[in-house]
Write a structure and sequence with these properties.
By secondary structure, the protein is mainly alpha-helical. Strand 6 (471-476) and strand 7 form a beta hairpin. It has helices at residues 8-24, 27-45, 54-57, 65-82, 87-107, 124-154, 164-175, 182-196, 203-223, 226-231, 253-258, 261-277, 281-301, 313-330, 338-356, 362-369, 396-423, 431-437, 442-455, 492-511; strands at residues 244-246, 249-251, 428-430, 457-459, 465-467, 471-476, 479-484. It is built from 20 helices and seven strands.
């Protein structure tokens, strides 16, 4: 469909969306246009083709530069979802996001300036979708860059076998080395967080700030900087943060994020992975266990199927269950709800049995469950054309490094698990005897006793040091004294969990539209 000829419904949609985002600021209207009308028009007129260009519809919004950038991002996002983007599409997407974020930051109020009348309103779902797609395209570009480099390197000795597409893509990538540069991606996310957490920030910029922190956490996790991934979420859990107006309600930043389920899911998954890699097993289990419990109820009621992108929820649920299988095996302290523990056992009992028998199993679980780590480094594309060049995917180094780091940690836990199994059988036992059970000499075993304390000692969400062990032990006069960890009967968690479950059910009931 050409830009010159398109239906009146498209013109009406653009006019109404511009009005809702720039003048009326009515959330329900914008929600209906963004989540309903756009998809209906797309399915009817543009199922596999591009929407009209921004220039073609500019008269419907008075040539509003920021709105046209928002429209361009929205329509390019649709186009990339229905076709396989080539190198030019990916670079076009980069320029579209740069233009959008530059305009957003240009309109943002300066720090310390008086709060002025809001000039832009975007619903939370739209804000998160922009940022989520931004990072998705960054991740896809890193993977595309790797694939193209390797395809060229494999034919370096026989250039006549190299396809024209690979050669063209390699040339374009070399000419656009700054495209999707990780430092620029980080700059935009950090700037959006900074301007949106100022006291004079409007609701839209606050939405962008908190969803940028979720996106930043995801990015740091993909880069392997797990401490930075957790630190990026501090603004969301800041107890001193001001409440945010969301529709007719005032919400905390955490409630804002939880109100957009894909954002809540992204936060839980990537922070869960980061906690696991930082050896904070209880925090990881708590984060992943709570979202899996919520999703289990959502699958039963059918509420999750109504959310756009729901086809990916089952896949991510299975990956998180695999992570919980690892966590529950290396962290003997009970941290999972009974229903989730049952699912973990049903799905991964065989793998865990293999691990107990001394066979490999952790790596398969982690490879299945971990995110697609990326290497943000830009390669020297000219090297891929030189005969005899290394054809090993340089981008796979990041992935292999994270798997290797994880497996090194798990090898240690195999020894610790064996030690614990013997220690639970005794209240006191000589160091020499216990060392012989573990096929070690005394000197070597003493270091492992210290190692076990260290490995299972971890920082918890309350910023205090805790332990993931279910036993206590100490050494005196060459004797290991063992006792079970003190079990404190506490009931508040049960009641708080039931209250939370009840609130979730009530929200789901309120969301059901009943037509009489």
């Amino acid at each position: 469909m050409s830009d010159e000829v398109f239906p009146d419904s498209v013109k009406d949609f653009v006019f109404d969306l511009h009005d809702a985002s720039r003048r009326s600021f009515i959330a329900s209207e914008e929600q209906a246009l963004y989540s309903g009308t756009f998809r209906e028009i797309t399915a009817k007129y543009f199922p596999n083709v591009a929407w009209p260009s921004p220039a073609a519809i500019s008269s419907e919004c008075g040539g509003d530069e920021l709105f046209l950038a928002l429209y361009n991002e929205l329509t390019l996002r649709h186009l990339q979802s229905v076709k396989r983007p080539n190198v030019n599409d990916r670079i076009e997407g980069w320029h579209a996001y740069r233009q959008l974020f530059d305009l957003l930051l240009k309109e943002a109020p300066e720090d310390g300036a008086e709060k002025k009348r809001d000039e832009l309103f975007l619903i939370p779902d739209w804000c998160f979708d922009i940022l989520h797609e931004f990072l998705y395209q960054f991740q896809g570009f890193c993977q595309f860059r790797t694939t193209t480099y390797c395809a060229a390197a494999k034919t370096a000795d026989e250039p006549e076998k190299r396809s024209a597409n690979v050669s063209d893509a390699l040339e374009i990538l070399g000419q656009n080395r700054d495209a999707w540069a990780v430092e620029t991606v980080l700059f935009y996310l950090h700037r959006l967080v900074a301007v949106g957490t100022q006291k004079n920030a409007s609701a839209t910029y606050r939405y962008l700030a908190y969803f940028s922190s979720v996106t930043l956490s995801r990015l740091e996790c993909l880069l392997g900087d797990y401490k930075a991934s957790i630190a990026a979420l501090d603004v969301i859990y800041d107890s001193k943060a001001e409440l945010i107006c969301v529709g007719e309600d005032m919400k905390t930043p955490e409630e804002l994020v939880n109100g957009v389920f894909p954002a809540r899911l992204s936060l839980a998954y990537h922070s869960g992975v980061s906690y696991l890699m930082l050896r904070r097993y209880k925090d990881s289990g708590s984060m992943l266990g709570s979202i899996c419990l919520f999703m289990q109820r959502g699958f039963k009621t059918g509420q999750l199927r109504k959310i756009p992108g729901s086809e990916q929820f089952n896949k991510l649920f299975d990956r998180m269950i695999a992570l919980l299988a690892i966590i529950s095996h290396i962290c003997p302290t009970p941290i999972l709800d009974d229903s989730i523990a049952s699912i973990v056992h049903d799905k991964h009992a065989n793998n865990l049995s293999k691990i107990e028998a001394g066979e490999e199993g952790y790596e398969d679980l982690f490879v299945f469950a971990c995110p697609k780590f990326v290497n943000p480094a830009v390669p020297d594309y000219s090297q891929a054309l030189k005969p005899g060049c290394e054809s090993t995917p340089y981008g796979q180094d990041a992935y292999k490094l994270q798997v290797k780091q994880f497996m090194n940690e798990m090898e240690t836990h195999a020894t610790l698990r064996k030690m614990r199994s013997y220690m639970t059988l005794y209240t006191s036992i000589g160091v020499e005897k216990l060392a012989s059970f573990n096929d070690m000499n005394v000197e070597q075993f003493e270091s492992w006793l210290t190692c076990m304390k260290h490995k299972m000692n971890q920082l918890e969400n309350n910023d205090k040091m805790g332990t993931a062990m279910d036993i206590h032990y100490y050494v005196a006069d060459n004797v290991v004294h063992v006792d079970e960890a003190e079990k404190v009967r506490r009931f508040e968690n049960f009641f708080m969990k039931q209250i939370q479950n009840n609130d979730d059910v009530l929200r789901q009931l309120e969301a059901i539209k009943i037509e009489l």
